[in-house]
Amino acid sequence: MDSTKFKLKNDFSDAFSEVVKQLREARKLSKAALAKKAGLHQTYIGLLERGERSPNLDTAKAIADALEVRLGKMITKAETRQ
Questions:
Q1: What digits encode the pLDDT tens for the residues 26-38?
Q2: Pick from 16, 15, 9: which is nearest to 63 by CA?
């Protein structure tokens, strides 16, 4: 059986992941640079951007702070992408 058929789709998490990637690229940060600024591992940033991980609120706030944007703004952007 194809395991991709069983991936649970979470539209908001996927939209949030896209926002993180968009903001990171707009600021010309590598995944490693964002991870370092946020106190995370670069592998986690890659997993997040591919929609394979969803951050808890503290992690989302750390990412927002590292990107120098309000978490609320990131959430609003993600909501409009759904």
A1: 999 999 999 999 9
A2: 16
Nearest 10 degrees: Cα torsion 46, 51, 52, 54: 100
C-beta contacts of 78-82 below 8 A and 24+ residues apart: 78/12, 78/15, 78/16, 78/18, 78/19, 79/12, 79/15, 81/15, 81/18, 81/19, 82/11, 82/12, 82/15
CATH assignment of 10-81, among 3.40.50.150, 3.90.1300.10, 1.10.260.40, 1.10.10.10: 1.10.260.40
Contact 44, 35 (CB under 8 A): yes
If we measure between CA atoms, which residue out of 67, 53, 54, 59 comes closest to residue 25? 67
Q: The tokens of 54 are what?
A: 């969803």
Give the pLDDT confidence score for residue 6 in this predicted structure: 41
